[in-house]
Amino acid sequence: MRTVIAAGLGLGWIPRRMWGSDAGAGTFGAVLGGAIGVMSWLAPWWVGLGLAVAAVAVSMWASAPQGRAGHDPGWVVIDEVAGALVAVVGLFGMAWVVAWVVARVADITKALPGIRAAERLPAPWGITADDVLAGLYGLAAGWVVTGLS
Predict the structure, then answer these.
(1) What is the distance in angstroms between the CA of the first residue and the CA of the last residue of the chain?
(2) Residue 113: cis peptide before it, omega within 30 degrees of 0
(3) Helical spans, DSSP H, in the chain
(4) Fewer CB within 10 Å, N or C, the chain?
């Protein structure tokens, strides 16, 4: 069960089955996180926050045995689910889109400060922390868009 959760309910295995590589698996997880975020649009903002916190905790739990070899397996995407949920807490419309995209780009490129360092933490911290930090960058971008609206 833990492995299925780590794979984002199996979404993390899709790229390997489709094109023989884990490339792009994280985006499948981020789409799941984004979909959960959209489903919380009608709820108060703190429901989205609770979902994000829960996803981070589940990511830490589910990814712990997967990262024992000292790396983040590509098919483990529960961390991207958590990062995407962090990015979209309380956001709607264009702000939501910007936050999700910024979080995804930040996670993929590791170009923003602290993301590479977070990824180097021991498992399960490193598996989850880089995505959460990327999600926080996305959330900040979403707040900027909201403030400018």
Answers:
(1) 43
(2) no
(3) 2-6, 14-19, 25-39, 45-63, 78-87, 93-109, 115-119, 125-148
(4) N
**pTM of the full predicted structure?**
0.95
Number of structural domains the chain divides into: 1
pLDDT tens, 90-145? 999 999 999 999 999 999 999 999 999 999 999 899 999 999 999 999 999 999 99
42-78: per-residue pLDDT in tens?
A: 999 999 999 999 999 999 999 998 876 567 889 999 9
Give 35's contacts (C-beta < 8 A, 6+ positions apart). Answer: none
Q: Phi and psi of 97, rounded to 5°?
A: -60, -50
Domain extent at residue 67: 2-148
> What is the CB-side half-sphere exposure of residue 23 using CA atoms within 13 A?
4
Nearest alpha-carbon partner for 74 in 137, 117, 125, 21: 21
